[in-house]
Amino acid sequence: MYRVVIPVERHEGLNSKISEHFGKAPYFLFIDLQKGKPTHWFASGNEAARQEKKRGIEAAHLLVGQKADILVAKEIGEGPYHVLRDNGIQILDLDEEPEIKHVLQALARKELRNLAYTI
């Protein structure tokens, strides 16, 4: 089993709209997968989204605290990138903003590539 995290705009479970911005995302959707299928999910509010500085780093610490294994995101800054990587969290690129079910399917097929930090 592993835990995938996706930044989302609203807390609507697996129907949530994916957020373009990691640090500014209002919520993170945590999805536990076993054999590529979701077994449990929950959303956590991103308190760091309201901060003026270091939003991404604080958000990264939230993911570390929730024992995430994989983050799927469209972009991420250098600071949070290193926090996540230093804690063993794989960061995968979300080329577009598909529905969460499409992200999970692409993840199961190993179609997502590693994401480098963006400035």
Describe what this molecule looks like in 3D.
The relative contact order is 0.21. The protein contains three helices and five strands; from the N terminus they run βββαβαβα. The longest helix has 11 residues, at 55-65. Helix 2 links the parallel strand 4 (70-73) and strand 5. It has a five-stranded mixed β-sheet, sandwiched between helices. The chain has helices at residues 55-65, 78-86, 100-108, and strands spanning 2-8, 27-34, 37-45, 70-73, 90-93. It is of the alpha/beta class. The radius of gyration is 13 Å and the shape is globular. The mean pLDDT is 93. It has a single domain, classed as Nucleotidyltransferase, domain 5.
What descriptive keywords fit this protein?
alpha/beta; Nucleotidyltransferase, domain 5; 119 residues; 5 strands; single chain; globular; five-stranded mixed beta sheet
Secondary-structure map with pairings?
Blueprint: E1 2-8, E2 27-34, E3 37-45, H1 55-65, E4 70-73, H2 78-86, E5 90-93, H3 100-108
Parallel strand pairs: 1-4, 4-5
Antiparallel strand pairs: 1-2, 2-3
Helix pairs in contact: 1-2
Q: CATH topology, anyone?
A: Nucleotidyltransferase, domain 5
Determine the N-to-C terminus distance.
Answer: 32 Å
Number of helices: 3
Strand content: 25-35%
Mean pLDDT comes to: 93
**Order of adjacent strands in the largest pleated sheet:** 3-2-1-4-5
Q: How many domains?
A: 1
Q: Which shape, going by the Cα principal axes?
A: globular
Q: Give a short account of the largest sheet.
A: 5 strands, mixed
What is Rg? 13 Å
Give the helix/strand class.
alpha/beta
Low-confidence stretches: none
CATH architecture: 2-Layer Sandwich
